[in-house]
Specification:
Chains A, B: Pfam families: MerR_1. Chains A, B: Keywords: DNA-binding, Transcription, Transcription regulation. The structure is a homodimer. The first copy, chain A, is mostly helical. Chain A has a domain at 1-63: Multidrug-efflux Transporter Regulator, Chain: A, Domain 2. Chain A is 60% helix and 0% strand. Chain A is built from six helices and no strands. Chain A has helices at 10-17, 21-29, 48-62, 67-78, 84-123, 133-138. In chain A, helix 3 packs across helix 4 (67-78). Chain A is elongated and about 75 Å long. The termini of chain A are far apart. Chains A and B meet through helix 3, helix 5 and helix 6 of A and helix 3, helix 5 and helix 6 of B. Chain A binds a DNA duplex through helix 2.
Chain lengths: 149, 149
DNA sequence: CGTACTCCTTCAAGTAACTTGAAGTTCAAG
DNA sequence: CTTGAACTTCAAGTTACTTGAAGGAGTACG
């Protein structure tokens, strides 16, 4: 449909993708993006290909993939014999990691919750003269109370 | 009960607390731990106070508090007018952040899950000639398919 | 006393993934 | 032609450590 190529400044590309301009330059520096051609004045100029590539990168980052994983995914996306199974495997590994992290965070949430609750029960309303949280925390046992007896 | 003061090397302190020796030196460098007294030969030596302090730090870190928060908590723990309410507030803010993060991760998990599932449904068993994941990912819409039509 | 071995020392640099700041240039508008 | 936003580069800061190199201290054994 659209035969003419849109040209974007780095700022426009940033707005279009949600990636900040310093981050775009950073991506160029580490080779995630090819060196951008420059205008007469030396400013970077981008086209729709760059828009697509950076959007892809952004999506991957939002999925929580690390830069190196994004590199692999980008290669896969460019390869002529692109392998969806390999992509799936990368995502599966990442999903496993996310679930692991999620479990840890759930545990952490419960621990913090009980911490705060105990603080409220024992000390709400003013400074706790008898707060033993610090002694509790300095003991090697499982972390626990805040202001208990 | 025990009147004599145990003296610990940095390695023994590390083992007792679960904090690595380079990390202990790092904590000293950034002022979380006071400069340790040295033996004649120049090696650091620690006592039970250090053990308590470092254990406290470790517990806080395991709770996910940042170094600067640990600094505040340490100050509170030393202050004569220690304020349990302030401690509670710090923990409450942190808990809110953890819950926020947790919500994001749950969403991420669901998205990744559907990603992997779609890959399996459409492409399991070999390279996907028609895999459109990459075009999907390069489109600015909500991230989505892997190998669907 | 020597030697072997582990543990200790410092200092510098590396990690992830950017962000921030300084000082200066280019572009579009009025 | 001047203003001001957006662009340029380069260096350093961020978080919380980890890793590596080169060498000294402490302890056990013979």
């Amino acid at each position: 449909m659209n035969l003419h190529v849109r040209v974007l400044t780095i700022g426009a590309l940033a707005k279009a993708t949600g990636v900040t301009t310093p981050t775009i330059r950073y991506y160029e520096e580490i080779g995630l993006l090819p060196p951008a051609p420059r205008t007469a004045g030396g400013q970077r100029s981008y086209d729709d290909d760059d828009l697509g590539r950076l959007t892809f990168i952004k999506q991957c980052r939002d999925f929580g993939f690390g830069i190196d994983q994004v590199r692999v995914l980008l290669d896969l996306s460019i390869s002529t014999k692109r392998d969806c199974v390999e992509t799936r495997d990368i995502a599966q590994v990442h999903l496993d990691e996310v679930r692991q992290k999620l479990a840890e965070m759930r545990l952490l949430e419960r621990r913090l919750e009980s911490f705060v609750t105990r603080c409220n029960v024992a000390c709400a309303g003013g400074p706790g003269q008898d707060c033993v949280i610090f002694k509790d925390m300095a003991a090697p046992a499982k972390a626990g109370g805040c202001c208990g007896s």
